[in-house]
Amino acid sequence: MDVITRTEEMLLLVVCRLQADAFGLRIREEVEALTGKRYSVGGVYVPLDRLVKKGFLTTEDGHPTEERLGRPRRRYVITAAGVRVLREARSMQEALWNLLPAPLERKLGLT
Amino acid sequence: MSRSDTSLPRWAERLLTRLASAHNRDVVVGDFAELFAWRAGEDGRGRALVWFWGQVLKSLPAFISNGFIFGGAMLKNYATVAVRNLRKRRFYTALNVGGLAVGMAACLLIFQYVTFEQSYDAFHANADRTYRTILASERPSGSFVEPFSWANLGPEAAEQLPSIEAYVRYHPNYGTATLAVLEDSVRGDAFREDAVAFVDPSFLSVFSFPLIRGDVATALTEPKTALLSVSTAERYFGEADPIGRMLEVDSWADGVYTVTGVFDDGPANSHLQFDVLMPLADLTESGEGQYAESDGWDWTNFITYLLLRPSTDVAAVEAGLSSLVMAQHAETLEAEGATQQIRLQPIRDIHLRSDFDIEHAEVNSARAVYFFTLVALFILVIAWVNTINLSTARAMERAREVGVRKAMGAYRKQVVAQFLTESAFVNGLALVLAVGLSVIAMPVLNKLGGVEITLSVWREPKLWLGFVWVFGAGAFLASLYPAFVLSAFDPVAVLKGRLGRFASHAGLRKGLVVFQFVASIALLIGTYAVYQQVDFMRSQSAGFDLDQVLIVDRPRFAGEDYRETREVFKDALLQQAAISSVATSATVPGQGHNLGTSGRREGAPETEERMLSMSWVNEAFLETYGMNLVAGRNFNAALETDRSAVLINETAVQAFGFDSPEAAIGGGIALEGGAREVIGVVEDYHWLSVKEQVPPTLLVLTGGGGYFSLRVDAANLESTMEAVQATYNEVFPGNPFHFFFADQHFDAQYREDVRFGLLFGLFAGFALLVACLGLVGLAAYTASQRTKEIGVRKVLGAGASQIVRLLVVDFAKLIGVAFVLTVPLMVWGLGVWLDGFAKHIEIGPQLFIVPAALVLTFALLTVSYHTLRAALTDPVHALRSN
């Protein structure tokens, strides 16, 4: 089973959510708005590329536009492996939470 | 494609294309372009450019790591090759690392010093809303700005101005106090304390000086109670519990005090330094002492601190305080044509931004601190220049390696990465060494700089951030240039043995060496000038003879019959052959006059009022201190009329408008307490450092005063001292004997200048060392490069001395050029600095020749080793090598 980091999970989920809008810039904005984590303009591609390399994301180049000086956008799409790893991450997380007895959860102030 | 104002500039596009990895290039450029256009439309092009640079810097780590990810296994290869290269050229690596390490260490030390100086008074929880009141008086005779003001300013202001949350008054003891431990009402050990202060109880809540024993709520609220610092309590009582113990105190408020609390020794970066705190009410409310008759608006001996409520308009409070003061003294101020204002100084500004006519706290100037920052950057740049020079100088050596790499299919980018990896190793190693060096050197700096920097400054995140930025960015830029130069070789040309125009870079190297030496020579000239000035000030006749004057403090527990015992003591001293005269006075040279006041020539209008200084001395003072009378006579203690007479100095003669010293005799000076007749005029003397202008000064006769000044014979000084102490203990039993020498006391005034000189010298030395390390490398390189030429010359009959001359002249020329460039710079810089001194040395060739000779000697010594070696080598080896 592949284990992914919190950051990777977050990015994968954001990519899922944005669907057709999952371009680098939109992902950067969304991550900042949802989690407060800030990437530099160039920086957001480092973790995304890592996810591509691991096979959880693939990319599609869009049409070049004039405002981008003739450069295409790159859209990220989640792969089957990506979906699987997200599902695993989620079920493991839920399993771990569910294993905690409710009274203990309250006692520790987790709820 | 046409570009509008809002689109990304073409150079920016090119920069990004270079920086981003091939894989992401198009997307990144597109992203930047899109965001830039949006920003430029919203905020304008200027802001968008600022944003652009910020983002490029922030994205740098990503660009670099991205490159590595797709460079994959290359990273390991870069590292292996880098280590191999650095080990192969040990001498060069050592020079490079050594120079950088020394430069960085100097920089680290200076940054720590600067951080410490800027951290003053930041530890108070209320630091951002606590202010010190500053009294600015504007009179026709001049202005006077001081932190001292009246006892009632704080209380009355707090009543009238609601934005004042609390006030604290601080009254220094103005001199030494004596405290004696009482055991069952019997006086035990007595101690002299210089740091005694009288404060309001609010002192402990407004400032953050925590009590470790005692109760903050009640501390200082009861009369005759005292708080001691931990170390003071230990000195007095050892391990025993100090709470409830009794002390007999001789200070501004005498009496028996009970210890009710102990506070932590204050941090070194506090402008307030004190060991004993006593209630201010003991001075103002006790109904005795100097303030018994005071209405709270006469003596300006109090420092008032105000704690303002959050988000208060400071200017409004200043205006309120000023009108309070003006209303209080309306009549007198109007008569004098004067105004008085209160300003508020944030307490964090006190240490570095106080430049008032008198000051209570130990202050430093912000300019000196910034100046040292500049020096630190200079040293660092010199070190980086070394890196650039050493690497470009060896371009020839590496050219073949680069050629082979390229021929084997390396991209230029990969060659650049190779060189950057090498310099990352060098910089990393240097940084580790530098941190070690700076930790070792810290005690030295603390001693020279008179500061107490501990490793705790490392906890400041600002400092870390500064280091990371400066070292990281600097190292990167300094290694970028060589990397690009070295990677630019055309492999075909190189492998054929031709280097093309890039190869030598001799012009640039020479320029950079000149720059290094301009900086080193400038620092050395500066150091030398500081020393010359301090020497000059010391050698200036102060107007008295301080060489053989021993000063003894008066006894503090002297009893009712002090008038008599004082005379007994004096007579007993004069019995000794080694003591030729004994004077008493209320102050001594090197510390302030007793009183700063104003007066005018009798009969002159009030507008002729002049600021003047007064001191109380006895009739033996002139003789003891070797002062000269230019007109009139000395005091005569037997004449009752001399009690209302004065001696004045030559400056006073002019200030009060007498035509000549002789004309002043018999004239009158109108002072607050009535007129005094001038009976004599003394030659001008520097009561304080010769840095200061001599003020108009009046000497007034007194029998008492806090000091006995003894003119002693230098021979058998030790036995004389013992005899003096024995007499003292006999006449004034139970008092601590304390003495000092007048010349040392006077010289202590130049401590700050000496300290500045020492620090300056230390860092100038660092700079020269780093620059010379660079020269060693260049000399070695030049010599090795010209091996064949030297061989041929020797075969044709050149002697060793001719060869040395050939090689050394080049370097000497560079230093000559550097010197020529430095001189005008320093003439200007020294001029600015020396203007701050009333008497100063002249700027002339003598200031420049010594440092220049020193630099030249050092530099030539540095280059001569390799040069000599080259000159002495058997030409056979040189010529056979190919």
Textual characterization of the structure:
- The complex is a heterodimer of chains A (111) and B (882).
- Chain A is mostly helical.
- In chain A, 54% of the residues lie in helices and 9% in strands.
- In chain A, helix 1 crosses helix 2.
- The mean pLDDT of chain A is 86.
- With 882 residues, chain B is α+β, with helices and mostly antiparallel strands.
- Chain B folds into four domains: 1-68, no CATH class; 127-349, no CATH class; 505-540 and 750-880, no CATH class; 549-745, no CATH class.
- In chain B, strands 1, 2, 3, 4, 5, 6, 7, 8, 9, 10, 11, 12, 13 and 14 form a 14-stranded mixed β-sheet that branches. In chain B, strands 17-18-23-20-22-21 form a six-stranded mixed β-barrel.
- In chain B, a hairpin with a 2-residue loop joins strand 21 (668-671) and strand 22 (674-682).
- In chain B, helix 5 (90-118) crosses helix 14 (412-449), helix 5 packs antiparallel against helix 24 and helix 18 (562-574) runs antiparallel to helix 22 (717-731).
- Chain B starts with 9 loop residues before the first helix and ends with a helix.
- In chain B, 39% of the residues are buried.
- Chains A and B meet through helix 3 of A and helix 2 and helix 3 of B.
Q: Unreliable runs of chain A, pLDDT <50, ≥5 residues?
A: none
CATH topology of chain A: Arc Repressor Mutant, subunit A
Q: What's the helix-strand series of chain A?
A: HHHEEHH
Summarize the amount of helix of chain B as a percent range. Answer: 40-55%
Strand content of chain A: 5-15%
- What percent strand of chain B? 15-25%
- The structural class of chain B is alpha+beta
CA gyration radius of chain B, whole angstroms = 35 Å
Major sheet of chain A: order of its strands? Answer: 1-2
Features:
heterodimer, A: 111 residues, mainly alpha, Arc Repressor Mutant, subunit A, two-stranded antiparallel sheet, 5 helices, 2 strands, B: 882 residues, alpha+beta, 4 domains, 14-stranded mixed sheet, 6-stranded mixed β-barrel, 28 helices, 25 strands, 17% strand, globular
